[in-house]
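Sequence, C-alpha cells reproduced for reference:
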Amino acid sequence: MPRKSAQALRVTAVPSARIEPPPDLTDEQREDWRVITAKFPPDHFGADNAPLLAQLVTHLSLARQLAEQLAGLRKTTLTATTARGAQQRAAFCQLLRMHAQESRLIASLSVKLRLTNSSHRNDRYDERRLRTTPDGPRPWEQH
C-alpha cells in the first residue's frame, strides 16, 4: 500500500455556519441574536447554546421595554401627594424591580454563554500576574 503524501493527509477546515435564531423570536430578538453571534467565531455557539441564547435575547427585549416604560414614568411627577401620584410611584417602583431582575438575568446568561470579558481567560492578565508575583518565600513563611 503506497504512502499518502502530506498534501493528501492535510485536513481542510470547513467553516461552520452560525446557528440561526429560532422562528418564534420577534424581529428585534432575531436581530439581537445575529449581533451577538456575529461578535464571536462561528463555532463559539453550538446547538446546545441555542436555548440560553434565546432566553438572553428575550430578556434583552423585555429589559428594553421596561426601560421605555420607566422613561415615560420619569417624565411625570412622582412626588405628587395625590392618589394618582401614589399609583405612579408604585408603578415606577415595580418597574424598577422588574428591570433590575431582567438585568440580573441578562448578566447571568451572558456569563453562562461566555459573552463577557470576565468569562474568558486573558493571557495578558496571566502574564502580568506572573510578572508581578514576587519570587521566593512569603514574609509569613520565613523563619
Observations:
- Residues 20-117 form one domain.
